[in-house]
Amino acid sequence: MIADLSQGRMPRQISAHLSIDKWVQEKEESLKKLERLYSDKLALAAPKEHWDERAAQERENAAKWTKITALTAAAAVALSTIAIVVLYSFDLPKIPFLSTSFIAIAMITFMIYIVRVFVKITLSSRHLQMAYEQKSALTYFYLSLGKHKGELTEEERVLAIQSLFTPVDTGLVKASELPDFNAALALLTKRTN
């Protein structure tokens, strides 16, 4: 009778031992994932802070350049109007080989060029602000994918890190051939579906 009881317990003990081993293994894997996620978070905390600071700085620059551009455009219109009135209303000495119309068009063209330069600087600041905000958001998105969807594949990890640390394009020069934000986002969001 004692032998029957001990034999009945053996399979239950083995089963309990196996389930405990399985549970321990699952918890160890979960701990490894959390350690890697924490390591990634620590590695990306300083860059994210930098990107947030740069986005705020570029937001201020964009606001400043927008005001400067508006003032420059208003000044250009006022100066062009004054120049046209002066050129055509008063009897100015004639300059050989230069007509009054050529002088007026040259002044207006120069004013438009100055305004275009300020518009490009304004748009560049706005573009940089958006790029830094995207990098900051991609950092959180990357970390949350690792936390909620499990381990990222090496290809996804490399693409995300490449996208986070590629140089930011100012918008003033032609973009480089490096992987862009949209490609990384497309690959990473493919996992969520």
Question: Notable features of this structure?
Answer:
193 residues, 83% helix, disordered N terminus, mainly alpha, 4 helices
Give a short synopsis of this structure.
The protein is an all-alpha fold and 193 residues long. It has 4 helices and no strands.
Helicity, as a percent range = over 70%
Would you tell me the overall average pLDDT?
Answer: 78
Quickly give the structural class: mainly alpha
Number of DSSP E strands: 0
CA radius of gyration is: 33 Å
Structural shape: rod-shaped
Detail the poorly predicted runs: 1-6
Query: How do the helices and strands follow one another from N- to C-terminus?
Result: HHHH
Number of alpha- plus pi-helical segments: 4
Q: What can be said about the biggest beta sheet?
A: none
Q: Classify the beta-strand content into a percent band.
A: under 5%
Query: What gap, in angstroms, lies between the N and C termini?
Result: 58 Å
